[in-house]
């Protein structure tokens, strides 16, 4: 059957479970409340189809595409949770179980769906890339699996001594993992690396040359106009740089997309560095937080089998191939990320699980890609004459050290175990997956499936959902602060795609623990000192305290220094109102139009790089919800207590002075 053909009025009963429907935009019927229906798919003996209303379904939802999973069997009823996804677009899942039946009544429904699946504008833009690929399914209601119940009970029954022993066991796994020969990053052959380098430089060189031409034009115009008509010069310069940044932002994203792998990670990182790259780049690269293109099942099945059978994971079933490990694996991906792809699967115990596999070429390309990433950062710093070589070097050093950790999924498994134990120790209630060790390796990670939606896909137009999402994001911010300041361990990548709203209650959840960081005590002291300082919101005190520290500035203006610190090291760029909007506008205008003279952090302590990334990704999550929330305010009590502990062990003058400040420092803004 040609699934790209127009949907027939009398659908042939092509049974698929779940549904994958490829359809061209032109084959979807136009008109308000006019639906296009997919081929039929099944759940057991029950039949369903997907209805798509491209021009809206409700009077208040005319600007949105609506999707509904509809029960088409003539008789009977069944319970289930409907879900719909669009490749390259959103994924929706019903918040609760529905009783499907041919005719709806007070207890039963004939369909389940979302009136505001995505905006019609975004839908039409997505359709320009090619056929639209919908997936739909009706799954049993997810309840806690026996494994999750068992793990939760084991954790609940643990004493503090048990937790300590379990954490020591994880630490021993980490020490063993440092010498484990299964994952070695030696790079590919020199020919492969040379080809990779050539591909990257071929894409980067035109961008560099176009920027140099713009710089030359601006310099020439400056000589001609600035002394004659300064206003005309500034207007023309602004227009030229704006046009250049808009054009090159698209070129940079296209280059990173074509390279794939760690370049997508780099794009995500740059998308959180608002104060280091032009706003046009941030706006373009933030799309890297969305799903990546899916890879074919024929390729992914080989990767999964190689990661399990090829790494010596013992079979758990009698089947062959992946059948030796899973009762079934969904061929349609749940999601695709920068370094791997995720599929839903069913174990022989009947558990619904998530299976993540790393793309094999990522490890081969790692060395060349990290070198190229550093070259790109150096080229951009040189082209725009950015006065922050020290800060750029600190960021790249941290990325070169941390990115390779994501390529051994056993490290992520250990991070998840640590997080769960820390949550038990400190009474935190954040939903995180449970690792299934017997179905995991360095290249494959199998975890329990969290039912819900990511922050990036939640419907924030509903005030009640938006408020629950804000509360969930605050809870996750608090949890990150607890593990950071009490255990020196934290999740370093809480962007909207990694924050979950789980279950009907929209409980806070966190996924993707590949990027977690552990600080030394001296590094934690630096973070504590900065959080305590920023919480005072005293411009004078902050300016004086940072003199002679590891932070360097190219400006002596205390207000601009304050703006820079909140820009990089808090999720609220306003510092809860202490930073004047004019100061932030100066920063944004400078990076966009006069980068050579923009106020910047010229040097940053290395331990602040991933702390700053956490603040940046949390800011993106709160911005998604149109909320201005300060992580510094949430973290201040924990940071102060941690500084007290560190100073009791090893006193130093700065910490001692900060601890003399009152616990509630709000009045210091006016007293200093």
- Contiguous helical run count: 20
What would you call the structural class? Answer: alpha+beta
The tally of strands reads 22
Distance between the termini: 76 Å
Helix content: 40-55%
Indicate the overall shape. Answer: globular
Radius of gyration: 27 Å
Beta fraction: 15-25%
Summarize the main sheet.
5 strands, antiparallel
The pLDDT mean sits at 81
> In terms of per-residue confidence, which ranges show pLDDT below 50 for 5 or more consecutive residues?
1-16, 179-185
SSE layout and pairing:
Layout: E1 19-23, E2 36-37, E3 41-43, E4 46-53, E5 64-71, E6 78-86, E7 91-93, E8 98-100, E9 111-119, H1 120-127, E10 132-139, H2 146-156, H3 160-178, H4 190-225, H5 230-259, H6 262-271, H7 279-285, H8 297-308, E11 328-329, E12 335-336, E13 340-346, E14 352-358, H9 361-383, H10 389-402, H11 409-426, E15 444-448, E16 452-454, H12 463-487, E17 489-491, E18 499-502, E19 507-510, E20 516-518, H13 521-536, H14 539-545, E21 552-553, H15 558-569, H16 581-593, E22 601-603, H17 607-624, H18 631-649, H19 653-658, H20 668-671
Antiparallel strand pairs: 1-10, 2-4, 3-4, 4-5, 5-9, 6-7, 6-8, 6-10, 11-13, 12-13, 13-14, 14-15, 16-18, 17-20, 18-19, 21-22
Overview in brief:
By secondary structure, the chain is an alpha+beta fold. About 45% of the residues lie in helices and about 15% in strands. Residues about 1-15 and about 180-185 have low confidence and may be disordered.
């Amino acid at each position: 059957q040609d699934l790209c053909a127009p949907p027939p009025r009398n659908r042939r009963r092509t049974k698929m479970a779940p549904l994958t429907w490829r359809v061209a935009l032109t084959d979807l019927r136009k008109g308000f409340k006019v639906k296009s229906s997919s081929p039929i798919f099944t759940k057991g003996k029950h039949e369903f189809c997907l209805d798509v209303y491209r021009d809206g379904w409700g009077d208040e939802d005319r600007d949105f595409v609506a999707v509904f999973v509809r029960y088409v069997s003539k008789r009977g009823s069944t319970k289930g949770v409907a879900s719909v996804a669009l490749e390259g677009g959103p994924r929706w899942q019903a918040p609760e179980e529905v009783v499907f039946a041919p005719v709806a009544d007070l207890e039963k429904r004939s369909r389940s769906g979302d009136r505001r699946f995505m905006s019609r504008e975004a839908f039409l833009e997505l359709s320009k890339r090619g056929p639209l690929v919908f997936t739909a399914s009706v799954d049993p209601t997810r309840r806690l699996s026996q494994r999750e119940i068992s793990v939760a009970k084991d954790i609940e029954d643990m004493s503090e001594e048990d937790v300590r022993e379990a954490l020591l066991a994880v630490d021993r796994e980490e020490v063993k993992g440092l010498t484990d020969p299964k994952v070695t990053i030696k790079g590919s052959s020199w020919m492969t690396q040379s080809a990779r380098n050539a591909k990257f430089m071929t894409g980067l060189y035109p961008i560099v040359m176009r920027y140099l031409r713009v710089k030359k034009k601006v310099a020439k115009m400056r000589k001609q106009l600035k002394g004659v008509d300064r206003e005309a010069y500034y207007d023309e310069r602004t227009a030229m740089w704006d046009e250049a940044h808009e054009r090159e932002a698209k070129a940079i994203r296209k280059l990173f997309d074509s390279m794939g792998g760690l370049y997508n990670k780099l794009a995500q990182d740059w998308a959180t560095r608002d104060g280091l790259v032009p706003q046009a780049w941030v706006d373009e690269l933030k799309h890297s937080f969305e799903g990546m293109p899916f890879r074919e099942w024929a390729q992914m099945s080989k990767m999964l089998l190689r990661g399990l059978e090829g790494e010596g994971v013992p079979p758990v079933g009698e089947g062959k191939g992946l059948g030796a490990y899973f009762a079934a694996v969904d061929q349609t991906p749940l999601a695709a990320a920068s370094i791997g792809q995720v599929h839903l699967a069913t174990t022989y115990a009947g558990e619904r699980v998530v299976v993540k596999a790393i793309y094999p070429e990522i490890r081969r390309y790692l060395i060349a890609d990290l070198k190229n990433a550093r070259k790109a950062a150096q080229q951009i710093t040189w082209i725009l004459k950015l006065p922050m070589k020290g800060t750029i070097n600190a960021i790249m050093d941290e990325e070169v050290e941390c990115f390779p950790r994501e390529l051994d999924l056993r490290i992520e498994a250990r991070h998840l175990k640590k997080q769960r134990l820390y949550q038990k120790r400190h009474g935190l209630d954040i939903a995180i997956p449970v690792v299934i060790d017997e179905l995991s390796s360095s290249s494959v990670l199998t975890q329990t499936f969290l039912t819900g939606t990511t922050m990036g896909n939640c419907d924030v137009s509903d005030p009640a959902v938006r408020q629950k999402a804000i509360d969930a994001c605050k809870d996750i911010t608090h949890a990150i602060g607890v593990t950071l300041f009490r255990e020196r361990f934290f999740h370093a990548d809480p962007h909207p795609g990694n924050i979950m709203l789980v279950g009907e209650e929209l409980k806070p959840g966190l996924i993707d623990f590949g990027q977690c960081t552990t600080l030394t005590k001296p590094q934690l002291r630096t973070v504590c000192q900065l959080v305590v300082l920023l919480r005072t919101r005293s411009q004078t005190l902050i300016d004086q305290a940072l003199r002679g520290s590891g932070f360097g500035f190219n400006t002596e203006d205390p207000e601009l220094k304050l703006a820079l610190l909140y820009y990089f090291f808090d999720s609220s760029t306003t510092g809860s109102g202490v930073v004047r909007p004019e100061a932030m506008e100066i920063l944004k205008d400078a990076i966009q139009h006069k980068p050579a003279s923009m106020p910047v952090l010229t040097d940053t302590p290395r331990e602040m790089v991933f702390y700053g990334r956490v603040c940046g990704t949390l800011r993106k999550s709160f911005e998604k919800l149109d909320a201005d929330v300060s992580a510094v305010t949430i973290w201040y009590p924990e940071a102060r207590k941690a500084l007290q502990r560190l100073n009791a062990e090893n006193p130093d003058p700065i910490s001692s002075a900060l601890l003399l400040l009152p616990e509630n420092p709000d009045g210091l803004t006016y007293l200093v």
